[in-house]
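User: Before I run my own analysis I want an independent prediction to cross-check against. Here's the chain; please return only the structure tokens and, at the end, one sentence I can use as a sanity check.
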Amino acid sequence: MAAVDSFQLLYREIARSCNCYVETLALVGAFYTASKAVVFVRECYSLIRLHFIPRLMYNRNLVRRFGEWAVIYGASETVAKAYAEELATHGVSIILISRDRSSVEGTARAIADSHGVETVLVEADFSHGHTACRSVQDALMNKDVGFLVNSVDSSLDYSQRFADLSEDRLWDAINRNVTAATLMARVVLPGMAERGRGAVINISSGRCCKPTLNKAAFSASTAYLDHISRALHYEYSRRGIFVQSLVPFGVASPETEDGGARAGCSRWLVPHPRVYARHAISTLGISHRTTGYWPHSLQFWFLQYMPEWMWIWGTHMLSGTG
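Assistant: Structure tokens:
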């Protein structure tokens, strides 16, 4: 009995001496919870301000604000093509840049016939280096270029060990996803800066925030586009140029939009290209880094907080590679 009394007495003395520490920990916990609540409310407000309010009040004259012409590099890509078509609905004329003219001739005709705007085709192969810029510069001469859209080449998004990539394949990936976008920005930015207006949109991928197993070159290319967009935003925003890093997740392709995209919730997470483009263009001038589509923003937030080891494990399981 004496031992029990001694233990209770000892416990009371220890609890009394630790009381100040318990109160301190309680304050720290309350502060942490409050800060997380503030962050959550702020993120919710940002989501509404970016993706919902502009679409309810969207009545902007894009030609007056940014310019009359849009330069599209990678118009054969699903998102870039839809983006060009959506710009055309606002009266913006389109210049399509491709290393294979025949791959975008159909797109140019469809845009011109559907929306009554001018379309120009320019053939430029950036694997030959900066000499490809000459044909682009000639095409842009005396034009009020208000938009540059660079799109990452999704045809290079395939799983293969880095050491198994051929030198030609690797060189092609770097030129089509890094070199071309960089040189295109170098071509259009001086004119935009002189006019004091314009928008540069680099379309990469939401996976840019995490390295991807067996897609080292492709995921690094998306990260490069994201990084240079953010750097150029800070460099040129004071000169009236809006630079945006657009990081979408899944967007339905013409082959899947009538099939797989209808199953379950995939229609919600993998939107029709034109639906995605309308959402993305409504964010112009508001956010310099966005997914462009609010369900994708939820995915991006989740991916940011996911531990890297979990992401690598998940991509390893999905790729089925050893």
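Sanity check: Residues 19-51 form the longest helix (33 residues).
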